[in-house]
Design goal:
236 residues; mainly alpha; 7 helices; 2 strands
Length: 236
């Protein structure tokens, strides 16, 4: 019975606490959505660095387009395909890199982080596969790391920082309601209310202890002593 009473008394408090947690969770999710929307716009110096990355990638594409290398090329001799050594040019691979870089650089005008970041990430993937002369093989990795690093910088580091700043500025003010000390006080007050409700419920039942003992009553068989007569007092 005590377990049933305990569960019945604790159920209203658990329901109220669960409802409060659900409301707080919904408020946090709505605040996070607003922070993402507010932080989707690029801020200085992101556009300037994006222009620098665009110039670098266009330069990589032009080097790949204009440079030649000595290697094997396919050539038909008497109807048969053979490989001969000669000058190799790479215009087919360099043209997509230059075109996509120009599109990514033009997207900086609207200052949308996600759009510009995704375009530069695609530029990095194409830059990794763009052939360069053997003397410039290290630049191939730079053509991948520079736009990829810029994308990670604006889409992870800067985005998270702006979201935190927006929440700290526009979010609800931090009060003592959410402090650990106040939470402990609320929990203790809740426990006190539960204990008081239990004691009040127990007080309605039969009383126990010294307070519940009935007052002593005189027995019907008890006969009080008789008063002494005057003659007996004279004999003394």
């Amino acid at each position: 019975m005590s377990l049933l009473r305990r569960s019945a008394s604790a159920a209203p408090h658990d329901g109220t606490e669960r409802k409060q947690k659900a409301e707080q969770r919904a408020k946090r999710m709505a605040l996070a959505r607003q922070a993402r929307q507010a932080s989707s716009t690029m801020r200085a110096p992101e556009p300037l660095y994006g222009i620098y990355v665009s110039v670098f990638m266009v330069g990589v594409g032009l080097v790949s387009y204009l440079s030649t290398d000595w290697g094997e090329i396919e050539k038909k001799v008497n109807g048969k395909v053979t490989y001969v050594h000669g000058l190799v040019q790479h215009p087919a691979q360099a043209v997509p890199l230059i075109a996509l870089t120009l599109v990514a650089g033009a997207s900086i005008y609207w200052r949308k982080r996600w759009v510009t970041g995704i375009l530069f990430l695609m530029t990095a993937m194409i830059g990794l596969s763009t052939p360069l002369p053997k003397s410039l093989q290290d630049v191939t990795w730079a053509g991948f790391l520079v736009p990829a690093g810029y994308t990670m910088w604006i889409m992870i580091l800067r985005l998270n920082k702006d979201q935190k700043d927006w929440i700290a500025k526009n979010g609800p003010a931090r009060s003592d309601h959410g402090s650990p000390g106040n939470r402990k006080a609320q929990q203790s007050s809740t426990r006190n209310q539960v204990s008081r409700s239990r004691s009040h419920r127990a007080g309605t039942g039969p009383a126990t202890g010294s307070a519940a003992r009935p007052a002593s009553t005189s027995s019907g068989r008890y006969t009080p002593p008789r008063a002494k007569s005057k003659g007996a007092q004279r004999k003394r």
